[in-house]
């Protein structure tokens, strides 16, 4: 068995989550590193932050696979007093490559939003919220809608959602906390602007993160109940992607160790 190269790992991931599914300005793909570098150890993370890089260095990781791209904006300088720039230097110094699968992982049929729907025990799941691409044959959907096994009140479902995602708190947006709901729409990350698509899909309740104040008022005006469990629920990638990577490695005959970051990169705390 041989160690795969960074390029070989990228090719396998992109066969699962093709870049054609990504949003136009989303910087998915290889962010840093040598495509021909052999890979002995892979670490999966939601975010690439200085503490995550320190963890990767300590564990002699060769390739970090992240959901959120490390570089959303170009660096204006490489002054190492900036922690972000120092992080880039640390990655280069230790020959750690970084790859991101972001909205392409969100918009495939079996990707991020499917994983989140599974975590909530939804059945009869269907994609919704079609995203048009340059290639009209690409069927990309940013969201999943499905059914709870039994109806719950909005309040009960909020508690269930909090439990399933192991949260210390979440935001509930509703005029009717005791209303029974069964059809749930979910979009991981910052999906508040897509609430009209959730309404069009017939959802009783919409789960998404980073809901803005004025958008929340608009949701209420339309009679939609919404739960905001935060952006960090997408850390589910750390549970869901490693088994796939191990399966692909076995099929390809690769010798590679696959782990997940043990750190929480959620910047928020409830007090």
From TrEMBL:
Q: Please list every transmembrane segment annotated in the UniProt record, as residue ranges.
A: none
Organism this protein belongs to = Lapidilactobacillus gannanensis
Pfam families linked: DUF34_NIF3
Q: What is the recorded name of this protein?
A: GTP cyclohydrolase 1 type 2 homolog
Q: Which NCBIfam families match?
A: YbgI_SA1388
Description of how the protein assembles with itself and partners: Homohexamer.
Keyword match DNA repair? no
Instruction: Give the UniProt keywords, A-Z.
Output: Metal-binding
InterPro entries, from UniProt? DUF34/NIF3, DUF34/NIF3_sf
Family named by the database record = Belongs to the GTP cyclohydrolase I type 2/NIF3 family.
């Amino acid at each position: 068995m041989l160690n795969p190269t960074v390029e070989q790992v990228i090719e396998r991931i992109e066969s699962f989550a093709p870049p054609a599914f990504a949003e136009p300005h989303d910087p998915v793909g290889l962010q840093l590193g040598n495509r021909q570098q052999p890979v002995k150890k892979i670490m999966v993370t939601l975010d690439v932050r200085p503490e995550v890089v320190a963890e990767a260095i300590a564990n002699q990781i060769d390739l970090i696979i992240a959901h959120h791209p490390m570089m959303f904006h170009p660096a204006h300088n490489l002054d190492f007093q900036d922690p972000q720039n120092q992080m880039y230097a640390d990655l280069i110094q230790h020959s750690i490559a970084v790859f991101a699968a972001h909205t392409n992982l969100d918009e495939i049929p079996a990707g991020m939003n499917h994983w989140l729907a599974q975590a909530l025990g939804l059945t009869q799941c269907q994609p919704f919220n079609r995203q048009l691409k340059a290639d009209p044959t690409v069927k990309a959907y940013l969201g999943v809608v499905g059914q709870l096994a039994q109806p719950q009140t909005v309040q009960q479902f909020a508690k269930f959602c909090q439990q399933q995602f192991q949260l210390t708190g979440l935001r509930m947006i509703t005029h009717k906390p005791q209303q029974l709901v069964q059809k749930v729409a979910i979009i991981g990350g910052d999906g508040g602007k897509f609430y009209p698509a959730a309404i069009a899909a017939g959802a009783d309740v919409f789960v998404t993160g980073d809901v803005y104040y004025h958008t929340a008022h608009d949701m209420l005006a339309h009679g939609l109940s919404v739960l905001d469990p935060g952006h960090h629920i997408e850390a589910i990638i750390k549970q869901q992607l490693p088994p796939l990577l191990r399966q692909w490695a076995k099929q390809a005959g690769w010798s590679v160790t696959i782990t997940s970051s043990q750190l929480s990169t959620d910047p928020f705390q409830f007090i």
